């Protein structure tokens, strides 16, 4: 929680613009298989809080597609629960809580998750938080409910980053909650910003900026706003991707005449070439265990996805279906590859089961780009075009649950989903 508080505090202090109001409109379609029925009660006295805790929890769980939400009204006496009554209403579990304003200006947020069958408490949390962290406390409660009822870690308290473009000369690198709320500005530029990538500790983002009239790779600290030039070689410097250790990045550079994959330390030292082909090698992505780098290469004639050792050596082709596959992203467990494939002239999001070689198309759109896995591996965020504008979309890895996040203004693209915070 301490790291989360530091990151959120840093963003609030550093941001030159931002809002506590909704930044995106979320549309949800489809449901997960075997939804768990959960009753969520309004938290007693939550009107004293700047955020309505129970509504945020409800929205998080509903958005996941894993739960059937039952509105439980407001339960003031959280110590006297009619378990049989809630079981009869079809609820397997019940979420209740209270919010109290403390004398020091903080808010005491308390929650319980109750099992209606066992008539027992499954989990509880008690956090005293400042006003700016009431939203975070709600996301953390939703994370706890998700984990206790599914066995999978929730990702509601994580952050996302993306680029917002307004007009031809306004580019903004934004950071927001995973639901698109609490949007904060990390960088503004009159030149394009592309390819943001989160550091494993969640306090820094690497990206490519064209402010020097050419693509240059930077790393920016989201708390202090200090930034470092990581790659500014001759030609193009692009596609930064963090190593799981957090001490180096893989990048794509054209310094030797055609684009190849290199690794470089976070401070810009130790540049080392790791791919060696006569074609274009680009878009590197590390596996979570640090044992592989996935990348796009046209060495076989058209763009396909390959895998190699982080120290270089032989590259093995991974994708074979379709003649155009780019933007590889590997799931946290290393079992699923997400990518953009061109089929019948459409650019669409696909996933490949690396164990069975089974491929699944997750999008019905025609212009998808920039997939990014949630840190729990259960959802993928990507950019897509809807009605002539770029917006963000989220889909479950089985394709059953789909969300679209539409900005109030401008195009939003180049999303990247941040890591779990410890």
Automatic annotation (TrEMBL):
Pfam families: PD40, TolB_N. Residues 24-121 form the TolB N-terminal domain. Keywords: Cell cycle, Cell division, Periplasm, Signal. One of its GO terms (cellular component) is periplasmic space. Residues 1-22 form the signal peptide. InterPro entries: 6-blade_b-propeller_TolB-like, Tol-Pal_TolB, TolB_N, WD40. Coiled coil: none annotated. The keyword Cytoplasm does not apply. It is found in: Periplasm. Gene3D superfamilies: TolB, C-terminal domain, TolB, N-terminal domain. One of its GO terms (biological process) is protein import. Part of the Tol-Pal system, which plays a role in outer membrane invagination during cell division and is important for maintaining outer membrane integrity. PANTHER family: PROTEIN TOLB, PROTEIN TOLB HOMOLOG. The Tol-Pal system is composed of five core proteins: the inner membrane proteins TolA, TolQ and TolR, the periplasmic protein TolB and the outer membrane protein Pal. They form a network linking the inner and outer membranes and the peptidoglycan layer. Belongs to the TolB family. This is Tol-Pal system protein TolB. It comes from Duganella guangzhouensis.
